[in-house]
């Protein structure tokens, strides 16, 4: 298979691991910086160039699109999809999951557990909005934040109101959630590939912190998931339309609650904590889907030679 990894940085652990896993399996692989891909869009004539050369003949791409380049990165990925290149995570699915509000609406619509969430625009509605949510503590988070940035714990109603006013003043999009205290600063990162959980870890926030992100100093260890947790993670990835996903869950009194579904989950933390070859699992899945597509194309009536009558 001719594989590309769409990534801004070749030196990143995750990128490097995917390249190594692909090479070990005998695939041809290259890393493409999405910001160096440029596109020509014309009816039935999509074209892409990379650093001055035509890019064509790719079988599959693994997108690793950082949040700072979501718009351009997903445009490049969409172009590759239109050029018949397979991606486990389609551009639309990435956009869906990056928007936490939209993702929560879609997950809740399918009956998946999540922290109760409220959203409002007008300051005149703040009091009623907080009544809709229930008593503090609340968690207020930026709609498109990552790595724990812009996730704030407001311990009282007045703190909650102040943060909401401050975010509004900055014209930021944000959500307000019930705080799941019984999770005790820990969450579960479930790594889903092709509808299976291939690895899972429990992340624990450092002392004095409620966010368990490894970027915020959290620690991680392998964990075995309950059946309900495994099913929730698989369903959440499916609802988002992602075949490679890092699904974050909180353990609560009412069962697993989905916090977010990551479309470019990091490999370093999960491989380090579990000792599992997650990069290999991703490459194997992409190769399997590519082979299946090739078979389907070969068997399609369009490609079968019609016998003369
Ligand atoms: N409603 C909540 N209740 C308790 N802890 C939460 C809640 N929301 C987030 N957290 C903690 O904060 C961390 C970061 O929140 P998350 O929504 O995943 O944002 P990010 O995209 O920045 O990682 C989570 O991993 C979890 O530990
Ligand atoms: Mg998170």
Automatic annotation (TrEMBL):
Binding sites annotated in the UniProt record for Mg(2+) 1: 248, 260
Binding positions (ATP): 141, 178-179, 187, 211-213
GO BP: any one term: SOS response
SUPFAM superfamilies from the UniProt entry: Glutathione synthetase ATP-binding domain-like
InterPro entries: ATP-grasp (IPR011761), ATP-grasp_RimK-type (IPR013651), ATP_grasp_subdomain_1 (IPR013815), RimK (IPR023533), Rimk_N (IPR041107), Rp_bS6_RimK/Lys_biosynth_LsyX (IPR004666)
Superkingdom of origin organism: Bacteria
Name of one Pfam family that matches: Rimk_N
GO CC term, one of those recorded: ribosome
UniProt enzyme class: ligase
Positions bound to Mn(2+) 1: 248, 260
Annotated keywords: ATP-binding, Ligase, Magnesium, Manganese, Metal-binding, Nucleotide-binding, Protein biosynthesis, Ribonucleoprotein, Ribosomal protein
Residues annotated as binding Mg(2+) 2: 260, 262
Gene Ontology MF terms: ATP binding; metal ion binding; ribosomal S6-glutamic acid ligase activity
Binding site for Mn(2+) 2: 260, 262
Cofactor: Mg(2+); Mn(2+)
Domain ATP-grasp: 104-287
EC number: 6.3.2.-
Co-factor binding comment: Binds 2 magnesium or manganese ions per subunit.
PANTHER family hit by this protein: RIBOSOMAL PROTEIN BS6--L-GLUTAMATE LIGASE, RIBOSOMAL PROTEIN S6 MODIFICATION PROTEIN
Similarity section: Belongs to the RimK family.
Protein name as annotated: Probable alpha-L-glutamate ligase
Annotated organism of origin: Alkalisalibacterium limincola
Lineage: Bacteria, Pseudomonadati, Pseudomonadota, Gammaproteobacteria, Lysobacterales
Gene for this chain: rimK
């Amino acid at each position: 298979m001719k594989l590309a990894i769409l990534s801004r940085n070749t030196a990143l652990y995750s990128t490097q691991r995917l390249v190594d896993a692909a090479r070990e399996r005998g695939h041809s692989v290259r890393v493409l910086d999405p910001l160096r891909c440029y596109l020509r869009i014309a009816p039935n004539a999509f074209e892409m160039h990379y650093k001055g050369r035509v890019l064509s003949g790719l079988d599959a791409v693994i997108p690793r699109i950082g949040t700072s380049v979501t718009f351009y990165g997903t445009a490049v990925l969409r172009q590759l999809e239109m050029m018949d290149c397979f991606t486990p995570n389609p551009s639309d699915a990435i956009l869906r999951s990056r928007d936490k509000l939209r993702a929560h609406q879609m997950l809740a619509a399918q009956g998946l557990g999540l922290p109760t969430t409220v959203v409002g625009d007008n300051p005149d509605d703040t009091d009623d909005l907080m009544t809709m949510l229930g008593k503090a503590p609340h968690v207020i988070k930026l709609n498109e934040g990552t790595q724990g940035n812009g996730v704030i714990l407001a311990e009282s109603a007045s703190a909650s109101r102040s943060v909401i006013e401050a975010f509004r003043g900055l014209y930021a999009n944000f959500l307000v959630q019930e705080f799941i205290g019984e999770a005790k600063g820990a969450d579960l990162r479930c790594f889903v590939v092709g509808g299976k959980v291939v690895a899972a870890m429990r992340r624990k926030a450092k002392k004095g912190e409620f966010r368990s992100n490894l970027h915020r100093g959290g620690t991680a260890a392998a964990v075995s998931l309950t059946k309900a947790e495994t099913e929730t993670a698989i369903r959440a990835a499916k609802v988002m339309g992602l075949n490679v996903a890092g699904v974050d869950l909180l353990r609560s009194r009412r069962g697993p609650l989905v916090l977010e579904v990551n479309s470019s989950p990091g490999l370093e933390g999960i491989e380090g904590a579990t000792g599992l070859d997650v990069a290999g699992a991703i490459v194997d899945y992409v190769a399997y889907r590519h082979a299946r597509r090739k078979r389907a194309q070969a068997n399609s009536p369009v490609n079968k030679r019609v016998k003369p009558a």
